[in-house]
Amino acid sequence: xxxxxxxxxxxxxxxxxxxxxxxxxxxxxxxxxxxxxxxxxxxxxxxxxxxxxxxxxxxxxxxxxxxxxxxxxxxxxxxxxxxxxxxxxxxxxxxxxxxxxxxxxxxxxxxxxxx
Amino acid sequence: xxxxxxxxxxxxxxxxxxxxxxxxxxxxxxxxxxxxxxxxxxxxxxxxxxxxxxxxxxxxxxxxxxxxxxxxxxxxxxxxxxxxxxxxxxxxxxxxxxxxxxxxxxxxxxxx
Lengths: 115, 112
Prior knowledge:
By secondary structure, chain A is mainly β.
């Protein structure tokens, strides 16, 4: 069964350090999403890609966060420098295309702890 | 006020009970309504989606959407301990970038 892959599953870092998360969407899915989920809350969209292009990054804190999907397949989300408030679950999701955005499939997430 | 409101629970029921989970929303332009199940330390899993108003059934799960009241529900029949999880509702438009807006989730515990 096709799944969204994410790594690492867990990351512990100290504030001011750089961290990076990787996502490989379901094969053939053109649209990729990064969400942040704070404990006890629902996921919130950080950035959305259609192929290699950014569709929406309005909620991405661009002073410290960056995301790329260079070849339109896998994607990397980076935080530099990490802050205490960045501790959360970072989820990647994909859908066949934007029009099928109601059928998003999520990966297992990366749980980030910033000390 | 959040666009999507969901009671956080926890909701505790005995095995075999019928469970009702609900969300209210404020934006009448939402057209797709989704329910996700999330086990602890896992990613959300899509259970089902509904377009516009009406009901949809899938096995023990039934989703209902009442757009006039801006109210959606998920019913789980014959609940099992394996249904213990957090249930997230999510909504999107049917045009544009179609990003999902999530509720905060309801934690369900089904007692054996």
